[in-house]
Amino acid sequence: MFAQTNTAIQVREAYKQFGSPILPLWRRMPRSNGKPNGAPNTNSHASFVVAVDHVSFSVAQGEIFGILGPNGSGKSTLIRLLATLLLPDGGDIRVFGYDVVRQPMQVQRLINRVSVEASFFKKLSPMENLVYGARLYGMRGAETRQQVVEILTRLGLEQRAIHKPMEEMSRGMQQKVAIARALLSRPRLLLLDEPTTGLDPRSKREVQQVVQELRQEHGTTILLTTHDMTEADQLCDRIAIIEGGKIVALDTPDALKRIIPRNGHEPTLEDVFLELTGKKLVKEEETVA
User: Fold this and answer.
1) pTM recorded for the entire structure
2) So where are the chain's domains?
3) pLDDT at residue 160 tops 80
4) What distance in Å separates the CA atoms of residue 207 and residue 194, rounded to the nearest whole number?
């Protein structure tokens, strides 16, 4: 039973695999010849990958919760499960009490998502793209256009860029527009999947400041995946480290760093990550927007 009213996200034993599907019970029942009904050919091997492996965690309302993990660890799959873009193969996932499987529409009204692979109508300008997106949320009129200008300029876009075609903008600038589009609907839960990838240091700081302001001024709950350990350390109240689809550690940044011996220097999240996963977290190259 999901009882806590102050809980934004509740995940219990979430499981997701890709590849060969799990056979339903009726297909696993024995046939007259004693073999399972629908059993695979013994000469072939089932091929599947477990992306999220019985993951459990909760996120309080107004919390900034980080997920760190190497490429292929299941971070983005977990985000897509929360965003109702994928269905879990097992477990329970709820957003503000709504079941992502049984009540996807209610969940979608409360969330927005920013990912590295954000898509746009490239021939249209940021203004046209954002106004179009706003209409999908029932937002219309001059007030919406004013909000678009305010958000984009807050994220560092110049006025002249707001009306240029998206195809003429750098990847970093397009990423800012993706973040602006998510902010425009003022979601109660913002899912940020590596939102600052491709941004230069100044743009990163601008985005990080906006994230903090969202929580402080609007009480927005934020779930963040990132390759930037400094970003995670500065922004997140708690961090889950995920490897092979499983959570291997979950605590505050300071508590995570205390599990590593000092050995003459102050431990960092990079040290923690290396200790728990045996891997270095590869950062995306910073590019000038």
Assistant:
1) 0.81
2) 1-23+47-110+187-289, 114-186
3) yes
4) 12
